[in-house]
TrEMBL record:
The keyword Protein biosynthesis does not apply. Mg(2+) binds at T24, T38. This is ADP-ribosylation factor. PANTHER family: ADP RIBOSYLATION FACTOR-RELATED. PROSITE patterns: ARF.
Amino acid sequence: MGICSSQSTLPQILLLGLDNAGKTTFLYADKWDQFDPTVGFNYEEIHLRQIVHVGVWDVSGKSTLRCLWPLYYRNINFVAIVFVIDAEKEERFAEARRELQILINEEELRETAFLILFNSRFEPIFDLEELTARVGLDLFHKTIKWKAALVDLMEESEDFKLALKWLGEQITN
Ligand SMILES: Nc1nc2c(ncn2[C@@H]2O[C@H](COP(=O)(O)OP(=O)(O)OP(=O)(O)O)[C@@H](O)[C@H]2O)c(=O)[nH]1
Ligand SMILES: [Mg+2]
């Protein structure tokens, strides 16, 4: 499907984050569990964990391909961005912060809600408060709607459900 040819009436969500953060894992958690780096994008109309029915664009996070991100959000009206961060790679937090900073300053994304999902598949090294501080989510303007959650993208959890419920509320508001 061409990037401009989506005829969907579903709310559209853009999945962003650094390479190897867990974006495709999030999108296809129910289907299989090993993914190659995304080349281009994946698009699915999906009932995320049976909580929210949306069209999801899963885009490559490779550094050389991040220059394509604006092509998506300048052509499609996204109600929310789900930004995935690997909670176990502290050495990449600054890089994630830089990318988030660019996004929140974009005029096209002023009305867009941001759900930040810290993906941790093992016992988390940091709790959500520490992660929020370390990535510097305080950089978010008070006017931007955002929420952060610490989840295992492959597992069901109350925090994950709450995060997706919040996403659903942003869509209906
Ligand atoms: N929570 C959890 N995360 C996993 C699991 N398996 C893989 N991952 C995460 O997913 C990452 C790689 O998966 P992808 O989903 O392909 O990453 P991506 O963000 O889509 O990467 P690009 O397509 O390169 O932008 C791994 O490094 C892990 O962080 C799992 O069983 N549980
Ligand atoms: Mg991917």
